[in-house]
Amino acid sequence: MTAGDLQALSVTLRLAAVTTALLLLLGTPLAWWLARTRSRAAAWVDSAVALPLVLPPTVLGFYLLVWLGPQGAVGAALAALGLPALVFSFWGLVLASVISSLPFMVQPLRDAFAAVAPRLTEAAATLRASPLDVFFSVAVPLARRGFLSAITLTFAHTVGEFGVVLMVGGNIPGTTRVLSIAIYDHAESFNHGAAHTLAGGLVLTSFAALLVLNLTQRRRAADSASSA
Amino acid sequence: MIEARFALTQGSFALDVDLQLPASGVTVLFGPSGCGKTTLLRCLAGLQRPSQGRLVVAGQVWQDDGVFVPTHRRAVGLVFQEASLFPHLTVQGNLDYGLRRTPVADRRMALTEVVALLDIGGLLQRRPENLSGGERQRVAIARALAVSPQLLLMDEPLAALDARRKAEVLPVLERLAGALSIPIVYITHAVAEATRLADHLVLLNAGRVQAQGPLQAISAQLDGVLAHDEDAGVVLACTVAQRDSAWQLARLDFAGGGLWTRDAGHAVGQRVRVRVAARDVSLALAELPGTSISNQLPGVLERIAPDVQPSQALALVRVGESLLMARLTRRSADRLQLQPGLPVWVQVKSVALLS
Predict the structure, then answer these.
(1) First vs last Cα of chain A: how many Å apart?
(2) Where are the beta strands (DSSP E) in B31-75?
(3) Could you give the ipTM of this predicted complex?
């Protein structure tokens, strides 16, 4: 691997870690609300959360570019406040990844929370646990498999993101140049050996991560089936 | 004294109750499914918020106009119909869950005491998934008691258990009722449970209170609800008056007379509760000579009520201050020309000791 490729790997891992951490903070309360609410607004929010699954990443990237650019609402506001622009920056990439990976965090968590029997959270309330306490002492431990899925999928999806990154981040080495873009560059310049190294590495590590996830889930399922 | 007044509407169902429940002993909420028992219980626990209501428990206002104490700030214990133990914690972890969240100043029951009372000392390291249904409910009761509640609520805790498990848990509940000084509100639609456990009975129907009062005082109104069951009968509070060691018999006196029964080892003066099933009671117009039945009591026929079977009827007979229930065929009732106010002799074939 070249120094540039190592730099791309570092940016990719940083981006995936920051995105996953932010989504864990933002997505968890959103997923809990979606799992518990009877509000009519939930269907609208659910649809909005799922949107990045069906839209081409370029659509998302295009709108982000428009909003974040110097003429865009967000970009102009940031400029007025004297803050650095988000387009073609690492934090712009983070924002784009948070939006495009949102369903990968929220949907597994929402389903895991929905599977926590209301009887158990009500029992916890009669055992003098406040709503926040119930969430951390009952809902989170019971949804741990959902957390494992959500974190793995979010991280892996962010690592694999291409379209949005290219639109919003461009290709600045050390700042916004991530692995998927490095591979694209190598392939464009007929440097197939380097492309193979990165692409093959991504295939292997992604598969390994998913395999570990699935093996854990299956073993847990088998455990609870045999002891029930 | 618990003061509970709730009004709420859910779709086509409306709950409208105004109750004064005793501050100790077991109050059984009895009624068919859909009558509002569980909704009423959820209102007591604060899990459901009625649009209008007032609830005062042990002098504390839990709900009133502009006041609603959330569930986690109420000193309430709740045992659900199905096991509601936390699957990610051991039995010990489940018991500690509520205990740790109960301020030390509020703790009135030591966990060791609760564990002994429910006889779960051997289960503490197990996981809920490795417990039988009966064990789970005993742990659930212990967990509810560990928070030192001022009010213990039980929502058909035996309903999900098979007959054998029921027989295992019911005596525990009876023991519990005797050992605790806090009021227990117990939901059931099983006559056997209601009569064995209740000190006070509330009959609910379609969201309204049909009758309420001490179990024995309310017996007369039971024909509409309780009697419609193969197990119809009455419960009598008795005192052991005499023991006959030669025949291994004991005389139990109740308000209205005495009943000879097998000596179960209770000391003279001890209070026991017996259940007299309607099918074990027959009627005669005069005291019968030459019968093997040793319990014959004079009484006055209060009224004849319809029974489950169209061929049968239930006769309610006042014996002193108590009521007994007799099951007879409608033909017999007709032949004896049974009328309210008629003096009759009640023959009791057997009684079941409840405690």
Answers:
(1) 50
(2) 52-57, 60-64, 67-68
(3) 0.80
Q: Which of residues 112-131 of B touch A (CB under 8 A)?
A: 127, 129-130
Of B75-84, B117-126, B188-197, B260-269, give the lowest mean pLDDT range: B188-197
pLDDT tens digit sequence for B164-183: 888 888 888 888 887 888 89
φ/ψ of B228, rounded to 5, equals -80, 60
CATH (residue range B2-224): 3.40.50.300
- b/e code A18-55 from CB counts within 10 Å (16+ = b): bbbebbeeebbebbbebbbeeeeeeeeeeeebeebeee
User: Nearest by CB to A129, which of B74, B76, B101?
Assistant: B101
HEC-encoded secondary structure of B98-131: HHHCCCHHHCCCCHHHHHHHHCCHHHCCCCHHHC
How far, in Å, are B109, B120, B177 from residue B113 at the CA level?
7, 11, 15
Chain B: closest CA distance from residue A128 (Å)? 4
Instruction: Match domain B233-353 to its CATH number in 3.30.450.40, 2.40.50.100, 2.40.320.10, 2.40.10.350.
Output: 2.40.50.100
| B205 and chain A in contact, CB less than 8 A | no
With contact defined as beta carbons under 8 Å apart, do B76 and B151 qualify? yes
N-term to C-term CA, chain B: 25
Q: Are B139 and B123 in contact (CB under 8 A)?
A: yes
Residues of chain B with CATH 3.40.50.300: 2-224
State phi, psi for B65 to the nearest 5 degrees.
Answer: -60, 120
Contact B147 A128 (CB under 8 A): yes
Instruction: Tell me how close the Cα of B32 comes to any Cα of chain A, in angstroms.
Output: 22
pLDDT digits over A167-218, tens only?
888 777 877 888 888 888 888 888 888 888 888 888 898 888 889 888 887 8
Partner-chain residue, chosen from A126, A133, A228, that has the shortest CB–CB distance to B45: A126
The CATH class that applies to domain A3-220 reads mainly alpha
Task: List, by residue range, all CATH 2.40.50.100 domains of chain B.
Answer: 233-353
Collect all residues with Cβ–Cβ distance below 8 Å to B272 and sequence separation of at least 6: B238, B239, B240, B252, B264, B266, B353, B354, B355
CB of B65 less than 8 A from some CB of A: no
- B197 forms beta bridges with none
Per domain, the residue ranges of chain A are 3-220
Most A-contacting residue of B42, B97, B147 (CB-CB within 10 A), to test interface: B97
What is this structure's pTM?
0.77
Comparing CA positions, the residue from A133, A104, A138 lying closest to residue A22 is A104
